[in-house]
């Protein structure tokens, strides 16, 4: 990694102690277009040419996406995980930013559609859709009580189409190794709660893929462990080591299944990074001095619209007569960036070209805490008890690796 590149990116995107997305060039949103371009297809904007200018005649791209394993996590685990050092020697690690919000639901809808959150309208893990009078988790597609929404279809969660039919039309075969099967790719499903099942699923994909091909492998285990234990914990270090043992094994499988190693490009990336919050100090919006629940708009049945965004990306849908007072309270009491809806649109925080779907789902206020979680203890205390979190604009949430190496260089 060239520290000058990272320093320049940090300086350019810095907003005080926050870091803004680099939508115009060095952003996670441009990975799908980069993969497609390397395989001779066009699905959207790509990273600058310098990110992949060493690689020619690529016939297979394999992307391992380790959920939550941002640049800070890569740097923090490098000394403990030899695979990371070996990968750096074989290839390159390019620093890029996540999207805003730095959340899996928003980022993965971007990854699968090559559109920004301002376009696809998934404002966070939790979404309020006014036209359907529904409040639900985008991943999974469930209400908080565990039932499926009845007034919106899963196809309408994101206002975007997947890139995979376009890749297929261009002759690129796509295989997904993920706990969540996709109808628009060749799925190879494994159990997210049992990482040992990943290897067989990946081996199957590597054996079956016909070039030109794109194999996408998703590993969410590090993120889940960080929520409960934090990134500075033995449990996190153990799951990170096991995850990259599985990735290393998958690369060995690729080498044994591939005749011409030089035509396969291996990429490692993440949807976002992580920070450790402090459950002792995390902020309860349902308690004094906030007591915000009565200020919220409600569904038609009278349920307050608590759940929009996440605990590091709080979208507040407020009664019109309460917006100014709530804004004043939050700016006085919170260590956070508090943005009015028009300011969010003007600054293009979620991206440019906002769709009508995004605009109606966007909160009247968006709260981006600097270092803590901010949520509703009366209905979702567990989120305030989480340690490792993401979704905001802390540099450790926003900076992620785009690491690349040819299979030949890794196999040497």
Automatic annotation (TrEMBL):
InterPro entries for the chain: Alkaline_phosphatase_core_sf, Phosphodiest/P_Trfase
Signal peptide stretch: none
Coiled-coil spans in chain: none
Protein name: Alkaline phosphatase family protein
């Amino acid at each position: 990694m060239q520290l000058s590149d990272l320093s320049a990116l940090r300086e350019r995107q810095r907003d005080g102690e926050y870091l803004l997305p680099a939508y115009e060039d060095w952003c996670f949103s441009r990975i799908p277009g980069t993969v497609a371009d390397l395989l001779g297809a066009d699905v959207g904007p790509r990273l600058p040419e310098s990110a992949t200018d060493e690689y020619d005649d690529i016939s297979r791209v394999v992307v391992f996406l380790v959920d939550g394993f941002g640049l800070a996590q890569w740097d923090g685990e490098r000394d403990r995980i030899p695979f990371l050092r070996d990968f750096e020697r074989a290839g390159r690690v390019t620093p890029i930013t996540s999207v805003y919000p730095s959340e899996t639901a928003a980022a993965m809808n971007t990854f699968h559609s090559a559109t920004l959150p301002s376009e696809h309208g998934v404002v966070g893990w939790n979404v309020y859709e006014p036209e359907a009078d529904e409040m639900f988790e985008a991943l999974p597609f469930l209400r908080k009580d565990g039932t499926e929404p009845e007034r919106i279809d899963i196809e309408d969660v994101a206002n975007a189409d997947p890139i995979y039919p376009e890749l297929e039309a261009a002759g690129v075969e796509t295989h997904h190794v993920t706990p969540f099967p996709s109808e628009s790719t060749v799925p190879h499903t494994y159990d997210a709660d049992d990482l040992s099942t990943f290897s067989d699923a990946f081996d199957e994909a590597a054996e079956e893929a016909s070039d030109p091909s794109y194999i996408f492998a998703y590993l969410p285990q590090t993120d889940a462990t960080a929520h409960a234990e934090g990134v500075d914990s033995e449990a996190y270090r153990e799951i990170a080591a096991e995850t990259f043992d599985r990735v290393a094994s998958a690369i060995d499988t690729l080498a044994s299944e591939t005749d011409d190693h030089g035509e396969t490009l291996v990429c490692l990336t993440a949807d976002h990074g992580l920070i450790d919050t402090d459950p002792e100090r995390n902020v309860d919006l349902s308690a004094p001095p906030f007591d915000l629940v009565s200020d919220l708009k409600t569904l038609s049945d009278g349920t307050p619209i608590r759940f929009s965004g996440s605990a590091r990306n709080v979208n507040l849908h407020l009664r019109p007569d309460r917006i100014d007072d709530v804004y004043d309270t939050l700016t006085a009491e919170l260590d956070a960036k508090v943005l009015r809806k028009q300011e969010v649109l003007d600054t293009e925080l979620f991206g440019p070209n906002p769709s009508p779907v995004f605009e109606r789902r966007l909160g009247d206020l968006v709260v981006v805490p600097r270092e803590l979680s901010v949520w509703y203890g009366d209905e979702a205390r567990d989120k305030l008890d989480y340690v490792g979190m993401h979704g905001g604009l802390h540099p450790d949430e926003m900076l992620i690796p785009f690491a690349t190496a040819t299979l030949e260089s890794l196999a040497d």
